[in-house]
Specification:
- This protein folds into three domains: 85 residues, no CATH class; 97 residues, Serine Threonine Protein Phosphatase 5, Tetratricopeptide repeat (Alpha Horseshoe), CATH 1.25.40; 90 residues, Immunoglobulin-like (Sandwich), CATH 2.60.40.
- Helix content is 30%, strand content 26%.
- The protein has seven helices and 17 strands.
- Strand 6 and strand 7 form a beta hairpin.
């Protein structure tokens, strides 16, 4: 009986190893090949690679793999590398944003049922639950709980949904030191307020609050609007830059920046980067699907 159980364990063990030790090709440069069972093939971005494979890196070739655990590692020197030596070498800086991004990318590639680009919020930090208040009949995307805006990427709409047709709305802006009385309000009949329309009334490096309600009703559920300075935005981009792996091609860097900016609630800026990634790599299904989902989520026409 003992021998029988041992035989079963020996048979199943390789399967467990393969299930645990797989990598996704995140970014690469050069004609990098993969040797598996004496067969050699050129690998491409998005491939799922087993730890039993041998990777051959040519001169001036680079590659970065994403790990299932939520990290990544790069190979930047030419040579032949057995990936089973890298199972414990995933680069993870203990940063939740980076971990969330690598887990998101892993799921996009390895889960055939994943609706590409749509489930981003599941990998973001501090997303409040959606609260629908019947008395107002208005729903606002919970990501809009805080909006950061630098002005570096153009306009962006503050949008909402209403379940009463032909409605009119009162949009209000408040100073941070007076959240009782709005310093600006306007009556509109659209389901969005362009940020470009409120920027002339506010100053950079200041925090404001906004609310929207049906006409003749009130809404005390104020949303945060930070009109950040160029330096603050540059610092955010700098922090995102520091999270890059040893090798990352330009399009992957742009897409990652977009994801991390959206996570940081820089929506206009994230839209710019998502669009740029799609322009640079129009055949990339994930980039295109993410941009489409982003525009739908925030009602961008």
């Amino acid at each position: 009986m003992r021998e029988y159980l041992f035989a079963i364990f020996c048979f199943l063990s390789p399967l467990f190893v393969l299930a645990e030790d797989q990598f996704v090709v995140y970014s690469l440069q050069g004609e990098i090949t993969l040797e598996t069972n004496k067969h050699e093939n050129r690998i491409k971005k998005g491939d799922i690679v087993a730890s039993t494979a041998l990777v051959k890196i040519p001169a001036e070739g680079f590659i970065t793999f994403i790990c299932k655990k939520g990290g990544w590692f790069s190979i930047t020197e030419p040579g032949n590398y057995s990936l089973n030596k890298f199972s414990d070498s995933c680069y993870n800086v203990k940063n939740s944003i980076l971990t969330n991004f690598t887990k998101f990318m892993w799921s996009q590639v390895t889960n055939p049922l994943e609706d590409k680009g749509r489930n981003r919020k599941a990998y973001f930090d501090n997303v409040p639950g959606a609260v629908f208040r019947d008395q107002f009949n208005i729903w606002i995307n919970p990501m809009f709980d805080t909006v950061n805006y630098s002005g570096a990427a153009g306009d962006f709409p503050l949008s909402w949904k209403c379940y009463i047709e032909n409605s009119r709305f009162q949009f209000s802006l408040y100073n941070s030191n007076n959240t009782e009385n709005p310093f600006y309000h306007i009556i509109i009949d659209k389901l969005k307020m362009p940020i470009a329309d409120i920027v002339p009334r506010i100053k950079q490096s200041n925090t404001y609050y906004w609310a929207v309600a049906l006409l003749n009703e009130e809404d005390d559920d104020l949303k945060v609007f930070n009109y950040v300075s160029p330096k603050t935005y540059d610092d955010v981009l700098g922090a995102i830059e520091k999270l890059k792996p040893a090798f990352e091609a330009k399009t992957e860097e742009i897409y990652r920046t977009a994801f991390m900016l959206e996570n940081a609630r820089y929506f206009a800026e994230a839209h710019h980067y998502y669009n740029q990634a799609t322009v640079l790599d129009p055949s990339n299904v994930l980039y295109k699907a993410t941009l489409t989902a982003f525009k739908k989520d925030y009602d961008i026409k």
